[in-house]
Structures are given as C-alpha cells and as structure tokens.
Amino acid sequence: MPKYPTYPTLYDECKTISISNLKQWKFLTVGEFKSGIISWSRNGEVNSRISISVSINPFNPHIKLDYLCNEIPITYIVYLASIPSNLGKGVIWYFVCPQTGKHCRKLYLVDTYFYHRSAFRYCMYDKQTKSHKSRNIYKLFDRLFSSDGAYEKIYSKHFKKKYRGKPTKRYLKLLKQAEASVGISELELLLLN
Questions:
Q1: Which of 38, 143, 151, 152 shows the smallest number of beta carbons within 10 Å?
Q2: Considering the entire predicted model, what is its pTM?
Q3: Mind spelling out the 3-state secondary structure of the chain?
Q4: CA 44, 50, 53, 54 torsion: positive or negative?
Q5: Contact assessment for residue 31 and residue 58, using Cβ atoms and an 8 Å cutoff
Q6: What would you report as the CA-atom Rg of the chain, rounded to the nearest whole angstrom?
Q7: How far is 104 from 114, CA to CA, in rounded Å?
Q8: How much of the chain exceeds pLDDT 90, in percent?
C-alpha cells in the first residue's frame, strides 16, 4: 500500500532573513542604529514586506521586526550574538532564535514568526522530498548538462586558459567538469532502471 503524501512546508519556499543580507545592506555596523524595509517579490511583483530596525550597540545588539501576518500586527525583537573571527579580523554575527535559543545565520518564516529551522516540525528542504532514485537521476543529468556550460565558458571570447605559461585554476576546473560527462558508463545508466 503506498504512503499517503504529506505535502510538507518547504524551507526553499519560505521567506528568510539572513545575516549575509544584513551585512550586504550595511545594517551590521557597530555603534549604529539603522532601519528599513525588507520586501519579497515573485515574478517582479512585491508580495510582502516587513519593517526592520537594527541596533548594534556593544551591550545589547538586536533587530526589531514589525509586520502584519493575517492582518494581525506582530512586533518582536531578535537578539544578535557575535564571536571573534578565526582569522583575527572582526567578528561573526549570529541571530539568537527567540524560540529555541540557538545561534543561526538565517531565520525562516514558516507560520507567523521568524525562527531557526529546528523550531518547526514537518518542514523539509525540496531535495528531501525526492526519492533516492530521482536524486540519482538528477545527479546524472547535472553531470551531463554541466559539461555544456563548461564548454561554453572555455570557448567564450575572452576566456584565459593560461597565465604565465601555466593553465589557470578556473580552466582546470572547467576541464574537469567537461570531462565528467564523458565518464558516464552504461552501468550507471542501467542502475537507474
């Protein structure tokens, strides 16, 4: 008897706030207070937005999120934590999840609040919903079609194959990708059936 489908919520389709985006937008400058609006769009049309305020003071760094969810106004604070970089330059910022207390670099909006992914049950990544057989098929097709892109890049107009008489790292990497599709054997194709 087949398993009934559950249609889980996919993390790949959720709205997210990430530390890397905040850093890119220059929200994580120490000693400053910044505010703005984050918006998400689909097919060029904005479908949701939230107001965000970031306070990076040395004693209590946090972000304040303010948005509407199902016509209900929601406002709460997510604290930030930092650790010194292992390179000795600067710090690495993390969110402290209001639900789990875990440090994370990305928060997901699944139901009403932005939390760490472990706060939600029955959520999966898109790849987890695929069967093992279909994952192997996708891997095989990736190997086949990545070689086309590699050949296009190698033979593009201004591509440098050598620098000072030695092959470049990028050229060697693209050659490896191009040769990967040649190495697909009949046995691999038969195992997919």
A1: 152
A2: 0.72
A3: CCCCCCCCEEHHHCEEEEHHHHHHCCCCCCCCEEEEEEEEEECCEEEEEEEEEEECCCCCCEEEEEEEECCEEEEEEEEEEEEECCCCCCEEEEEECCCCCCEECEEEECCCCEECHHHCCCEECHHHHCCHHHHHHHHHHHHHHHHHHHHHHHCCCCCCCEECCEECHHHHHHHHHHHHCCCCCHHHHHHCC
A4: negative
A5: yes
A6: 23
A7: 12
A8: 34
Whole-number average pLDDT of the chain: 85
Give CA angle at 47 (42, 48), nearest 5°: 125
Tokens representing residue 186 in the block? 């009949």
Residue 80 pLDDT class (50, 70, 90 cuts): very high
Q: Which amino acid is at 164?
A: R
pLDDT: which is higher, 128 or 26: 26
Sign of CA dihedral 22, 25, 30, 35: negative
Per the structure block, which two tokens stand in for 155? 């033979």
> In 3D, which of 79, 49, 46, 42 has the Cα closest to residue 64?
79
CA distances from 97 to 58, 100, 113, 114 (A): 19, 6, 10, 8
Tokens 């929601």 correspond to: 74
Contacts of 139 (CB under 8 A, 6+ apart): none
